[in-house]
Write a structure and sequence with these properties.
Helices cover 80% and strands 0% of the residues. It is mainly alpha-helical. Helix 2 packs across helix 7 and helix 4 runs antiparallel to helix 5.
């Protein structure tokens, strides 16, 4: 016969304790997203307020312009030229099936002016710029340099965030316009070399199709992309904890969030430009 004690729970108290309620993963992720969104909104408010405080951080902005703009020229030149060449080859092959290869210049010109130059440049350059900001600000956070700024009475949003946001807003339109010129040049050269489309015909056909509205509708998005890149990079840098491992995690998260945020913002900015400037 089995002992009666075998059929009883080992601890009567444990049997009546309620099981802990586990939060669904989706709810936790949503709460985390809302928390990050609130912190970014707070950063925007503090940075906007710092813009009107003296002294103006002109020297810091110039330093960031060099870091974000001049040091990004290499990646913009290489990626823009080869993206233009790839797009031209793809469109030329596709249009040749329908006997419309002469429209390659028009299609490539419109694609680059309205979408490829501003958006792809922001995604590619944004990964570099945003990751750099997150690493730099994150290193200051884990070494308590940001706390030291606060202890000295300085505003870290004015000293760290404002110059980076301001510089990114100024740099991105220039990089976007440069990407447009280089991408179109690469497309023009490859179509002349591989498909025999004269460069002059390619150029003037695109010039007759791409209007100032097309150019503005693409370039007007670049300052917003610059602000997104800088704010996301500075946000993840400011909340970095956990030493060098935390800096690495913040850098990785910045690259992912910047890319997704730019693509989402691109959709809404495109819809807004169509609504505000009819006739596109």
């Amino acid at each position: 016969m089995s002992d009666a004690s075998d059929t009883e729970p080992t601890s009567g108290r444990a049997s009546i304790l309620p099981r802990p309620v586990e939060e669904p993963a989706f709810s936790l992720r949503m709460l985390g997203f809302l928390e990050h969104l609130g912190l970014v909104a707070h950063m925007v408010a503090r940075t906007t307020r710092a813009l009107f405080k003296r002294p103006f951080e002109g020297r810091a902005i110039l330093t960031q312009l060099e870091s974000l703009g001049v040091k990004s020229l290499g990646i913009v030149v290489v990626t823009s030229i080869f993206i233009g060449m790839v797009m031209a080859v793809q469109f030329a092959f596709g249009l040749r099936k329908f006997g419309g290869m002469e429209y390659t210049g028009r299609v490539v010109g419109l694609s680059f002016a309205r979408e490829l130059a501003p958006t792809l440049t922001a995604v590619i350059v944004g990964g570099r710029i945003g990751a750099g900001m997150a690493a730099e600000v994150g290193s200051m956070a884990v070494t308590e340099q940001i706390d030291a700024l606060r202890a000295l009475g300085a505003d870290p949003y004015k000293k760290l965030v404002l110059p980076r946001v301001f510089a990114a807003i100024l740099v991105m339109p220039v990089l976007g316009a440069l990407a447009l010129v280089l991408g179109f040049t690469g497309a023009m050269l490859i179509t002349d070399f591989q498909f025999g489309i004269p460069s002059s015909f390619f150029f003037y056909s695109a010039l007759g199709t791409v209007t100032m509205k097309d150019f503005v509708s693409g370039m007007i998005k670049t300052p917003f992309f610059g602000a997104i890149i800088a704010l996301v990079g500075c946000h993840f840098g400011m909340i970095t904890r956990g030493g060098t491992e935390g800096v690495g995690n913040s850098t990785t998260r910045t690259v992912v969030v910047v890319s997704i945020s730019i693509l989402i913002a691109d959709f809404f900015l495109t819809k807004a430009s169509i609504a505000l400037m009819p006739g596109f």
